[in-house]
Design a protein that fits this description.
Layout: H1 3-24, E1 29-35, E2 38-44, H2 49-66, H3 71-74, H4 87-92, H5 104-122, H6 134-148, H7 162-174, H8 181-185, H9 217-255, H10 260-272, H11 276-279, H12 286-299, H13 305-322, H14 327-338, H15 344-369, H16 382-385, H17 391-400, H18 406-409, H19 416-426, H20 428-446, H21 466-479, H22 481-500, H23 514-519, H24 538-575, H25 583-592, E3 599-600, E4 613-614, E5 622-624, E6 629-631, E7 635-637, E8 640-651, E9 659-666, E10 669-677, E11 684-689, E12 693-704, E13 706-719, E14 741-743, E15 746-750, E16 755-757, E17 760-762, E18 767-775, E19 779-785, E20 794-797, E21 800-803, E22 809-815, E23 820-822, E24 825-833, E25 838-845, E26 848-849, E27 865-867, E28 878-879, E29 887-892, E30 895-900
Antiparallel strand pairs: 1-2, 2-3, 4-13, 5-13, 6-12, 7-12, 8-11, 8-13, 9-10, 9-12, 14-15, 15-18, 16-17, 17-25, 18-24, 19-22, 19-25, 20-21, 20-24, 23-24, 25-26, 27-28, 29-30
Length: 903
C-alpha cells in the first residue's frame, strides 16, 4: 500500500470516527459540579452497546458515501471530533473549559462544518447558476417561518410589546377605537396571553381612558390577518412580510450585478439565519421597516417615474405610523428615491403625500394625548431617553452585547465590513445608499437609552438595516466562501437551538445571556463577553478587543483568527473574577438531568443533599434596613422538595427588635417565607415545589432594625426524575388562585387554563391538568360535576384511569400512593377529560370533606398573601403582619412602602 493510499485510508477513518463520535454521545452530557464533598464529575445518559454499534455503523456508512467527494469537501467534518473533548475533564478533572463542546454547542460546530462542506461541494467558478424564480424563494422562506412558528416563542407565548399590539388590534376590531379600558376589564387578551397583562399605558391618557403608548400602525397592518386568524393569523402575515423582504434582498443583490450565486446565498442568509428568522414569527414593527428598506434600495437604483415616486411616498408615509423612530428612515428613503430623474410634479406629489401623512400623525397624537408631538404618547420624560450622545455606546452594544447584540446570534454579518469595502469600489452608489439607509435606523436605535428594545429577541433595532447589511455582505460571500459558509452555518444552527429551547431568546436586562445559558448550562460564559446592559469599563475594553480579533481574522484569515482568539481569551480570562464552573449553574445542570439510574462516571451518582443551589444575591451581602428591599437573580429549578437556608444575622442597635422578612417568589406566586430575627440562627424552610419554579427569586425586606444577609441557598431533598417531569410542568397561568390551593394536607395546582370557580376549577374545553398534594398514606376525594356527561369521560390519576360513567355528579376516592413521594407528601398528576366539567379535590376524613382554604376565615390562617411580585413591577407585595390585621407593605415606584392592605 502506497503512501497516498495510506493517507486516504487514514482520512476515511478520521471521517468515520468524526461522524460516529457525535452520534454516540449525542444524548449524553458530561457534568462537573462543586458539591459539599468536592468537585463531582459524571455523565448523564451514557451510550449503551446498541448506541455504540449504531454510531459505528453511521460513521462507516457516512465515510463510504462521502468518499467520492474530494478531501477538501470532507476535511471540515473532522472538527466533529470535538464531541469527545468533554471526556477529558470527565476522567482527569482538567480542562474544564472543554465541557462546552457538547449539547447545543455541537449543533453550532456541526452547522459550521456541514455548511463549509456543502459550500465547497457546490462551488463551480465557471458555471452560471440557474435563475431562481422569486415565487419559489418566497414559498421556501414562508414555509420555513410557518414551521419555525410552531416552536418559537414556545409555551411563553407573545412577549414584550407583542400582546399589546394584538390587544390594540382587538380593540380596533371590536370597538373601532384605541381605548383599551374594556379590553383590560374583560381580559380580552386571554386568548393569546396567559396571566395578567400589565397595560403599556400612555401617561398622557385622558382621565377615564387607557390609551396605549404604541403608535397604531402595526395594529392596523395586522388587523385583517388578526380578524381572520387571531394570533396565529397575525404571525403568518408577519412571516409573509419577512419572506417578501428576503425576496427583495435577492433581487437587490442580483440587480447590483454581483454574481447570481451570491444573490442566492444572500437570500438564504437573510431568510434562514437570525435575526430576521426570529422576527418573522414575532409581532414587531421592525419587519415591515426592513421591507421598506429593501424597497427603498431597489427604487433608488433607477429613475422611479410616477409609479416609483408614489410607491416610495406611500412606503415612507406608513413608517412613522409603525414607530416614530422610523421617521429618519422614511425621510431619507423618500429623498434618495426622488433624487433620481423624475418629473417635478411627481416629486411634489410624493412630498405632499408624505407631509400629509406626518401631519395626520401629529394630529392623531394631539387628539389622543393633547400634544402634536411624535413623543406625545411617551410623556415628558421621553426626551431624556433619546440622545445622539448615546449613539457610540448604543452602536457598539447593538453589535457586540452578549445578550442583545447582532453578532452574538448572526456572526456572518461581521463579513459585511470586508464586503462593504468591495461594494464601495464596484458599486459606489449602492454602497452609499446602503450605508445611509442602514445607518439611519441603526444610529437612531443606538440613541435610545433602552437600545435593546425591551423584552424581545436580540438585535431588534438592527432588523430594519438587514437589507443594507445583506447587500454589503454579498461581495464577501464568494471572496471569503469558507468563512461565510461557516458563520452562516452557525447562524442557522442558532435558529435550530432556539427552536428546541425558545428560552435562548428570552433575555432580561440583567446581563445574563439566555443563549449562552442554553449553549453551556454549567459554565459561566457571560464574563467572557461584553455586557453593555450592565456597563462598566470592561464592556468597551472587551468590545474593542473583539473588534481587534475580528479585524485580524479578516486580514490574515485562519492564522489571524487563531492569534486574535488566543489574545482575546487571555484578556477576557484575566478580567473575570468568577470561576468558569459556576456552582449555581453547574448544580442546576445536574438537577435538570437528574435520573439516578442514568448517571455514571468515575465518581458514581452524587448525593442530593451534597448539591446546593446558591441564590445569586446581587451586590451581596445584603444590608436590610426598615422598608428596604433587595431581590436576587431569578433561577429555574425542577420539581421536588428543597430546603431553603439563609446565612445572616440581625445587627445590634439601640432599642427595638431586629427583624427581616425573606420571601421566595416566582412572578405573582409566593412560594414560601421566613424571618431572620435577633438572637436566632438563620432560618431554614422546607420548600415543596410540585411543579418546580420558573424565575424563582429571593426578596429580602427590612422590617425592624437592620439585618445582614450573607448567603442563601436551596438544598434539594427529593427531585422528580427527568423522565416523569412532563406531568409536573409549570402552570400555564401561574397565579395565586391556581397554585397549591386547598386546606389541610390536600392542595391542588392547576396546570392549564382551567378557571377557578368556588372550591374547584372549571375546565375550559375538553381537558384539564392538575397536580394534587396529600399525605403519603391518605385518600383524596375528587368531586366532578359535568354539564354534558359522556360515557368516554374519565379521570386519570397517576397511572390509573377512572371512568366517570354517565352521572352528572360523581365523587371518587383515590389513593395518594399513585403519585411521586416528596418527603411526607405525595404529589399525583391528575387529568380530567370531560367537556366543561367542574372538579375539586379534598381530603377524606371520616367520610367528610375538608374545608377549602379560600372559604376559611382569615383568623384561621397564620398568613394571608395578598399579592407578591418582583420589586420593579409596581404590584402589591403585601401580607397581614403582627402589627395589625390590615397593615402590609406594597412596592411603589421601586421602594417598599407601608400601606393599608386592600383586603
Amino acid at each position: 500500500m502506497g503512501r497516498a493510499d495510506r493517507a486516504s485510508l487514514a482520512h476515511d477513518a478520521g471521517v468515520a470516527l468524526a461522524l460516529a463520535v457525535p452520534v454516540a454521545l449525542w444524548d449524553a452530557r458530561v457534568h462537573a459540579a462543586p458539591t459539599a464533598a468536592g468537585l463531582w464529575r459524571g455523565m448523564s445518559d451514557p451510550p449503551g452497546a446498541a448506541r455504540l454499534l449504531v454510531s459505528a455503523a453511521v460513521g462507516i456508512l457516512g465515510a463510504a458515501l462521502l468518499r467520492r467527494h474530494p478531501a477538501a469537501v470532507r476535511r471540515p467534518l473532522l472538527v466533529l471530533l470535538l464531541a469527545a473533548a468533554p471526556l477529558i475533564p470527565l476522567f482527569t478533572g482538567r480542562g474544564l473549559a472543554l465541557l462546552a463542546f457538547q449539547g447545543a454547542v455541537l449543533v453550532l460546530v456541526g452547522g459550521a462544518a456541514m455548511a463549509v462542506s456543502i459550500a465547497r461541494a457546490a462551488a463551480d467558478p465557471d458555471g452560471t447558476p440557474a435563475r431562481v424564480p422569486g415565487g419559489l424563494l418566497f414559498a421556501a422562506a414562508f414555509l420555513f417561518y410557518a414551521l419555525l412558528g410552531t416552536r418559537i416563542p414556545g409555551p411563553a407565548g407573545p412577549q414584550g410589546d407583542e400582546p399589546h399590539y394584538l390587544l390594540m388590534a382587538q380593540s380596533l376590531l371590536s370597538d373601532g377605537d384605541l381605548d383599551l379600558r374594556d379590553e383590560f376589564a374583560r381580559r380580552e387578551y386571554s386568548g393569546f396571553f396567559a396571566g395578567t397583562l400589565q397595560p403599556h399605558t400612555s401617561p398622557r391618557s385622558p382621565a377615564g381612558r387607557i390609551y396605549p403608548i404604541h403608535t397604531p400602525g402595526l395594529a392596523v397592518l395586522l388587523l385583517p390577518a388578526y380578524a381572520l386568524g387571531g394570533y396565529a393569523g397575525a404571525r403568518l402575515f408577519m412571516s409573509a412580510l419577512a419572506a417578501l423582504t428576503a425576496v427583495l434582498v435577492h433581487r437587490l443583490v442580483r440587480d447590483a450585478s454581483i454574481h447570481s450565486s451570491a444573490a442566492t446565498a444572500a437570500w438564504a442568509i437573510a431568510a434562514f439565519t437570525p435575526p430576521l428568522a426570529f422576527y418573522a414569527v414575532a409581532l414587531y414593527p421592525e419587519v415591515p421597516a426592513a421591507l421598506a428598506t429593501a424597497a427603498f434600495l431597489i427604487l433608488a437604483r433607477r429613475d422611479p417615474g410616477w409609479g416609483g415616486a408614489i410607491l416610495a411616498a406611500l412606503v415612507a408615509s406608513a413608517l412613522p405610523w409603525l414607530h416614530p423612530r422610523l421617521l429618519p428612515l422614511a425621510g431619507l428613503g423618500l429623498a434618495l428615491t426622488l433624487a433620481r430623474r423624475c418629473p417635478w410634479i411627481a416629486r411634489l406629489s410624493a412630498v405632499a403625500i408624505f407631509a400629509a401623512s406626518v401631519s395626520l400623525l401629529l394630529f392623531f397624537f394631539r387628539s389622543l394625548y393633547g400634544r402634536a408631538s411624535l413623543s406625545a404618547a411617551y410623556g415628558p420624560g421621553f426626551a431624556a431617553d433619546v440622545s445622539p450622545a448615546r449613539a457610540p455606546w448604543g452602536a457598539a452594544a447593538l453589535l457586540l452585547d452578549r445578550q442583545f447584540g447582532l453578532l452574538e446570534i448572526a456572526p456572518v454579518f461581521v463579513l459585511a465590513l470586508a464586503g462593504g469595502a468591495a461594494l464601495a469600489r464596484w458599486r459606489p452608489g449602492d454602497a452609499a445608499r446602503a450605508a445611509l439607509l442602514g445607518g439611519a435606523t441603526f444610529l437612531t436605535g443606538a440613541s435610545f437609552s433602552m437600545w435593546w428594545g425591551g423584552a424581545c429577541p436580540p438585535a431588534r433595532f438592527v432588523v430594519p438595516a438587514l437589507p443594507a447589511l445583506a447587500l454589503a455582505l454579498a461581495p464577501a460571500l464568494r471572496a471569503r466562501r469558507d468563512a461565510a459558509a461557516a458563520l452562516a452555518g452557525v447562524g442557522l444552527a442558532i435558529v435550530a437551538v432556539a427552536a428546541d429551547a425558545p428560552r435562548a431568546l428570552h433575555n432580561r436586562a440583567d446581563g445574563e445571556s439566555g443563549l449562552l445559558r442554553v449553549l453551556a448550562p454549567s459554565l459561566d460564559l457571560d464574563g467572557l463577553l461584553p455586557s453593555f446592559v450592565l456597563g462598566g469599563p470592561q464592556a468597551p475594553l472587551l468590545a474593542l478587543s473583539l473588534a481587534a480579533a475580528a479585524s485580524l481574522a479578516l486580514w490574515r484569515g485562519a492564522r489571524g483568527l487563531a492569534v486574535g482568539a488566543l489574545g482575546y481569551a487571555a484578556l477576557a480570562g484575566g478580567l473575570r473574577a468568577e470561576p468558569l464552573i459556576d456552582r449555581r449553574l453547574a448544580t442546576l445542570d445536574v438537577l435538570e438531568a437528574w435520573e439516578p439510574a442514568r448517571l455514571a462516571g468515575p465518581m458514581g451518582p452524587p448525593a442530593l443533599v451534597d448539591l446546593q443551589v446558591p441564590l445569586d444575591l446581587r451586590r451581596a451581602p445584603w444590608l436590610l434596613r426598615p422598608l428596604e428591599m433587595q431581590t436576587s437573580r431569578r433561577v429555574d429549578v425542577p420539581p421536588g422538595l428543597y430546603r431553603f437556608e439563609v446565612v445572616g444575622r440581625a445587627l445590634s442597635a439601640e432599642g427595638g427588635a431586629r427583624v427581616a422578612r425573606l420571601d421566595l417568589v416566582a412572578g405573582d406566586l409566593a412560594l414560601g417565607s421566613a424571618y431572620l430575627q435577633e438572637g436566632q440562627p438563620g432560618p431554614v424552610l422546607s420548600l415543596l415545589l410540585p411543579a418546580g419554579a420558573r424565575r424563582l427569586a429571593l426578596v429580602g425586606s427590612g422590617v425592624q432594625g437592620a439585618a445582614l444577609i450573607e448567603e442563601a441557598r436551596l438544598v434539594p431533598q427529593e427531585v422528580v426524575p427527568r423522565a416523569r417531569r412532563e406531568d409536573f410542568a409549570w402552570p400555564r397561568v401561574p397565579e395565586p388562585d391556581r397554585y397549591r390551593v386547598g386546606a389541610g394536607d390536600v392542595r391542588t395546582t392547576c396546570l392549564d387554563r382551567s378557571e377557578p370557580e368556588g372550591e374547584g376549577f372549571r375546565l375550559q374545553g375538553q381537558g384539564g391538568a392538575f397536580l394534587v398534594e396529600s399525605g403519603r398514606g391518605a385518600e383524596v376525594v375528587a368531586r366532578v360535576t359535568r354539564p354534558r356527561p359522556s360515557a368516554s369521560d374519565a379521570l386519570s390519576w397517576g397511572t390509573r384511569r377512572v371512568p366517570l360513567g354517565t352521572g352528572r355528579d360523581v365523587e371518587v376516592r383515590l389513593p395518594a400512593g399513585e403519585g411521586m413521594a416528596l418527603g411526607p407528601t405525595a404529589v399525583v398528576p391528575a387529568r380530567l377529560s370531560a367537556y366543561g366539567a367542574w372538579i375539586t379535590f379534598s381530603g377524606a376524613v371520616g367520610g367528610t370533606r375538608a374545608t377549602d382554604a379560600r372559604s376559611a376565615s382569615p383568623a384561621a390562617r397564620p398568613m394571608v398573601t395578598v399579592r407578591s411580585a418582583p420589586p420593579d413591577s409596581g404590584k402589591w407585595y403585601g401580607w397581614r403582619m403582627w402589627n395589625g390585621p390590615d397593615i402590609g407593605y406594597a412596592v411603589q415606584r421601586g421602594s417598599l412602602q407601608k400601606v393599608r392592605s386592600p383586603t
